[in-house]
Design brief:
The protein has 556 residues and is α+β, with helices and mostly antiparallel strands. 32% of the residues lie in helices and 15% in strands. Helix 8 (345-351) runs parallel beside helix 11 (467-488), helix 9 (401-422) packs parallel to helix 12 and helix 11 packs antiparallel against helix 12 (492-507).
Amino acid sequence: MLCFSSYSNAQVSTGPATGQSGNILIIGNGWTGNFSSCTHNVDCWSGNTDSGDIHNAPAGTTGNGSTFYWSGTQQTLSNTIAINSALAAAGIQVDGFDYEWVYKNGNANWFSGQPGGGGVDPFEIVVNVYDSNGNLFKTYRYDYGTNFANWTYDTGTETFGTNFLDPSFFGNVEVLVTGKDIAAQAGYWGPEFRADESGLYVNYSANLCYNNPLHDPQCPGYANALFQQQCTANPLFDSSCPGYAAAYLIQQCAANPLHDPSCTGYQQAYLNQQCKIDPLYDKSCTGYAAAYLADRCYYDPLYDVQCTGYQQAYFDQQCELDSQYDQLCPAYLDPDLVDLGDVDPVEEVLSEPDIPVVAELDFTSPVDNFDGEIVVEDQQIVETVEVEDGDGFQQVDDSIEGEQLQMEDDIEKEIAALENETSKDDTAPDMISGGANQEDDIEKELAELKNSADSENKKDAPKPKTKNEKIKMLLAMKAIELTKKLEKEVSLEQNMIMQRQLLALISYVPGFDYNEKKLPQTNFYPPKPTVDHAYARWFLNDPNFGAMEDSQYNFK
């Protein structure tokens, strides 16, 4: 009898009288092999003939169930049980089995030897456990061919040693019983086996993995269950988790809204990013007004009074418009050092009508013959030369070196007599008178030039006192007249000639030795000790003293 029982009921064999307690599932006989039926107490045991097979006394005839008797020929009984079919209940695990074998190995009650000679008859029971794929899972052997024994009940428990084995894991359990009469006597003198009293009881228990594969890492499906659990708790556990893409997008958007344009808050984050890079990106940027002001001020410090450098830029602008705007202007002229009254040569050129060109003074005539009249020569007539048509422009000699030298020579000749007279001894009455006459002649010419220009609504310039001042004034007036003439001249060649004359007048310096072409080397200060007192030191430390020096030497 092959049986199954619940392991939780602690099945223990108590002998053939009581059998196995608990829930026993009777499978039925199911034995196969080379055996034939016999009559109990008639021809099943001993005897003097056999067919080389196993005798079987059917159940109900022996009083002890179905019993098998072996002859002198080795034979094997087999019985197969399908565990997965017998234990179809869900939620259990197979842990092992209990066994009980009832047998006798005594040679027809000869327990000390064989009637025909020989030792103990070989007798063995084997249990093979297969998985659902037909592979051998476990094998257990029980050898009872080592000792003579009367009827014996042998029980025990086998544990598979593998947890959480579902019945579906198993296939069949095979029981093999093999024996023979080693003396090979005629008849059935070999081992005896009571099949109905022997049994195999499969032990099972609740399978905690069935409802919870995460119960133990050894549970079948544990890896998949763990994966599903982690994905449910956090779709970002693995890129193959359901919903991973959406969860990843949410995660990245939370960390950085600029991760994707579909992120919530992307537009605002993008605006903030661009504003951080450049506050001028949008008018709504924080700091836009200040950045815009700084940008405008960079290109134009005069854009706003808040611009860095505005005061300096405004000052430079005013100085460009009017050099007299402030004493610190680079081109500022101190009125105390340069006082020409209200005479403004440029203004006169723009406002007064044209007057005839004043001829150059001739200072080469003897002083005694100077009658005080200024002779104005006729205006030079410039001949217009017809130039043949050509592909290029007319080439005009624009060198002013020769013209300037000629003008300087003419001026030198005109003032030579005056310089010679003024250099003579002051005690000579006629020389003094001559020098005075020369200055008077210059004054007459200045008056004549001044009267020729309309000075209405203007104050006359201060009267020059020294000879050099008179010469400077004379040159200035002549330059004005020549400038006015130059403005009306349309001939390029005549225009260039007048420009050379004007440059010669402007570059002339009274008192400069034009023969040696260098300044006289004289001591500027008299040979006296340097004045050193409190007032002198105060004067040098006065900030306006530096401005005065700059106005003399820095003509920017």
